[in-house]
Amino acid sequence: MSGTVKEAPGQAETPFLELHKKFLQDTPPPGAVRGLAEAALERFSVLGFPHRKHEMYTFVGTQDLVGQAFELSGEGATPEQEFLRAQVVPGCENSVLVLVDGHYRADLSDTSALAGSIGVVPFAEALSDSGLQNYFKDAIDEENDVFAALNAAFMADGVAITLKEKAAPEAPLQVLCVSTGSTGGPVLNQPRVLIQVQPLAELKLITSFCGERPNYFVNAVMDILVQEGGQVSAAQVQRDPFEAWHFCKTRVTLAGDSRFFTVGASYGSRLVRHHYDARLKAPGAELSLNAVSVLGGQEQVHQFVRIHHEAPHCTSHQLFKNIVDGKSRVSVDGTVIVCTGAQLTYSDQLINNLMLSDDAHADNKPNLMIFADDVKCTHGATVGQVSPDQMFYLKTRGLSEKTAKELLTKSFAASVIDTVRFPAVAAELKKSLLKKLEA
Amino acid sequence: MAENENTVSDVLDDKSYKYGFTTKVEAETFAKGLNEDVIRAISKKKNEPEFMLDFRLKAYKKWLTMKEPAWANVHYNAIDYQNISYFSAPKPKKKLESLDEVDPEVLKTFEKLGIPLDEQKRLANVAVDAVFDSVSVATTHKKKLMEVGVIFCPISEALQEYPELVEQYLGTVVPVGDNYFAALNSAVFTDGSFVYIPPGTVCPMELSTYFRINTEETGQFERTLIICAEDSSVSYLEGCTAPQFDTNQLHAAVVELIALDNADIKYSTVQNWYSGDPETGKGGIFNFVTKRGKCQGKKSKISWTQVETGSAITWKYPSCILQGDDSVGEFYSVALTNGIMQADTGTKMIHLGNNTRSSIISKGISADRSSNSYRGQVKVAKNAKNARNYSQCDSMLVGDKCSAHTFPYIESANSTVQLEHEASTSKISEEQLFYFESRGISRENAITAVINGFCKEVFRQLPMEFAVEAQKLLTLKLENSVG
């Protein structure tokens, strides 16, 4: 047993503690931020990197990642103009915020299409607000994900966005996180995004993660706070090169009658882990989370979801569709927690996996924790393959084996892509993500 | 490791420990505490073959290196393993003269469960007349079983009579170091059941611990080993619906089933241990059981059915290792928690062979302030072609202070599998009860009807008389929880 438990405490964490010292020396964060960063570092040391039997990382092997000697990505690297332009979603040319290696770049951003509706400030500046300070303090104290704690320990830069009360801009806001990567040793960058949606405001949001060069570890944290009656429709696209580690924690807090709707699409990389932590705080809050992953080769995508129904009359929906081929691995570990008193909760969760290869892995853990009796909660999970009957049906109609299989696998993934509320994003996903299914 | 360095002399100093180097062995109970000497003493006391002592010591060494698991969704104060006496010889209970001497509360329970009078006497430990003599019943059964070659005896007896069979199979399904409680059991178990069904035999009756001679307390560390040889089948019943009390708080049993080619084992459990004070939980039993079956042969089948209604804490995952091609694993469970009981129970279906199939039906009912978790794993190995699983776990909540949890683990590593899992939660609503009551059906009967409907699929798997009693038991338990 002892072999599976974490090695001598601190051994794996030491390089990161060293990096942190360097970080404090080179770019000392301002007062309020520094206090939080130190508290987060403390939390990071307490949590420690997960061992193989860690319940939160049952399906995720992090040994390979933790063993790397990372350098911090420097400030000031600018990606090629052409590369950057290609990453901007059509229609977002004048509503894009760019973070390069975790640093907010006002010079590369353009939010003229949203003028009057949103306020954008560097993250550290937003923290002068004592309410937010308390929010982050609590978040750090309660943090159970060591990688999110690691991000918070290095919090200094990033972007804070506020959508003003009742504002409902037509143009979607794209938050583009670019990693420039490295041609030498692996580098670490930790973007931090804070989005506040004021009462009755409606935000259309596209977040995209991409890398110009490989060999990086992007460890992002995104906080989305939606106030009474606010709405967010989002698409979250992960498209890093294979030689990249991508960890992202999205923390969503929903006030009464607010809504959060998101569709995640993952292209996979050597290790991708999405962590959603959503809290439905007051009656009428609604959350919808759909996600699709199409993987091949050695790619991995792991979803870790915790949805807390803290108040009565809230609703949450989840749908995951995964296609795995080659030696790829996918996992969904999702828990819906219905707290005491959260009566009349409605929650559903469905995970569908399509396995195209004998060497691929699909692991699922759809959990329910229910502390109230007048609720309706369901979950389901399936693992299967392309149905021979459906194949036969298509072949009798003259489709070749290859075309028939493509049609069936693509339509499996397309059912999630079709829920993306931005035609330009959906079109790109259908073009490039589904291309992975072509032989 | 200082606490384990108690020497034999320390143990001997305690006056309650009379086991010594003289031939006169009358000891009833060992002194509290656990160390190698205690294990040697247990083994010697039971006059076990050499391999058994090695087995126990190996388990003990492994246990020392292990940590008590903390992943289960249950909370309890730490157990002091040195404050337990690891051997107590079966003590004859004081016989009562008539049913009049039995606690009226207990009698009321029997009556509600519909247990026949003679059986009530036996359960309440009243001396029984010649008509219902459990010993003679057992002897008759034993004779009948021997005729077809079925071995059914206490495992301590099997160690004397059939040591080679025990040595061949013991620990092959649940290895000594499998988990913390299994390791502890392997080191210190004192008795349990042993069943061997020879090839080509259909066991002529349902085997039950009821009929086994020597049914006095088997102690808190029970060990059961059932081997079903080629083309044979057996149905085994464990426990009973009557409330059971025990002074031992910790129960860490191990059950191993082995099914060879075309063999079929059906294992049914009804558990109703004392669950402690409904308000404080004081005195309730901790039921930490490791049950696992191995479908070793082709086309073998193991089916677990359990009705869990007692214990302060239940920690139990009857599992199937589907090793043989075309083997089948089944798990049917009803787990009811009330008061402040906590249950974390479920199953594991490990698919290793081709065309293996498993199905899981789990029904959890939680009432009052209790917590009820289903935790189940379905794992398909890379080479298990065409594996198929269907899981369904439903929870019912009675009252707004209880909780129900579902933790399925579904792991697939090949492309020919078909796995399905679904879960739901519901409640006994006032509307349902009102509907019944408006049609002249009493509240009690209404609850019975709703619960029975909910658990029907599981009860169907139980032997007839058991099913009837189990239904009544559930109603009885929920009596004051609804409405």
General shape of chain B: globular
Q: Using DSSP, what is the number of strands of chain B? A: 20
Q: Specify the oligomeric state.
A: heterodimer
Q: Strand content of the residues of chain B, in percent? A: 25-35%
Question: DSSP helix count of chain A?
Answer: 10
Q: Could you report the average pLDDT of chain B, rounded to the nearest whole number?
A: 81
Query: Taking Cα atoms only, what radius of gyration of chain B do you get, to the nearest Å?
Result: 23 Å
Strand content of chain A: 35-45%
Structural class of chain B: alpha/beta
- Domain count of chain A: the total is 2
Strand order of the largest sheet of chain B: 3-5-8-10-13-16-18-20
Mean pLDDT of chain A: 92
Number of beta strands of chain A: 21
Distance between the termini of chain A: 44 Å
**Beginning-to-end CA distance, first to last residue of chain B:** 53 Å
The class by helix and strand makeup of chain A works out as: alpha/beta
**Greatest interface:** A-B, 40 and 37 residues
Unreliable spans of chain B are: 1-27, 127-136, 211-218
Main sheet: strands, sense, barrel of chain A = 11 strands, mixed
**Helical percent range of chain B?**
25-40%
Model description:
The complex is a heterodimer of chains A (439) and B (483). With 439 residues, chain A is of the alpha/beta class. Chain A folds into 2 domains: 14-282, no CATH class; 388-439, no CATH class. Chain A has helices at 14-26, 31-47, 63-66, 81-87, 123-126, 130-142, 146-153, 388-396, 401-417, 423-433, and strands at 71-72, 96-100, 103-104, 118-122, 159-163, 173-179, 187-189, 192-197, 202-211, 216-226, 231-239, 244-254, 259-266, 271-280, 286-295, 300-309, 315-324, 329-338, 346-355, 361-370, 376-384. In chain A, strands 1, 4, 5, 7, 8, 10, 12, 14, 16, 18 and 20 form an 11-stranded mixed β-sheet that branches. In chain A, strands 3-2-6-9-11-13-15-17-19-21 form a 10-stranded mixed β-sheet, covered by helices on one side. In chain A, α2 (31-47) runs parallel beside α6, α2 (31-47) runs antiparallel to α7 and α8 (388-396) packs across α9. The model of chain A is unreliable at 1-9 (pLDDT under 50). Chain B is α/β, with parallel strands linked by helices and 483 residues long. Chain B has a domain at 99-428. In chain B, 27% of the residues lie in helices and 28% in strands. Chain B has 12 helices and 20 strands. Chain B has helices at 8-13, 36-45, 50-65, 104-113, 117-123, 134-148, 155-161, 163-169, 180-188, 430-438, 443-459, 464-478, and strands at residues 151-154, 193-197, 207-208, 223-228, 233-239, 250-251, 254-259, 264-271, 286-295, 301-308, 313-316, 319-322, 328-337, 342-345, 348-351, 357-367, 371-380, 388-398, 403-412, 418-427. In chain B, the strands form 2 sheets. An 8-stranded parallel β-sheet of chain B has the order 3-5-8-10-13-16-18-20, with helices on one face. Chain B has a 6-stranded parallel β-barrel with strand order 9-11-14-17-15-12. In chain B, α7 crosses α8, α10 (430-438) crosses α11 (443-459) and α11 crosses α12. The radius of gyration of chain B is 23 Å and the shape is globular. The chains are: A alpha/beta (439), B alpha/beta (483). β20 (361-370) of chain A pairs antiparallel with β19 (403-412) of chain B.
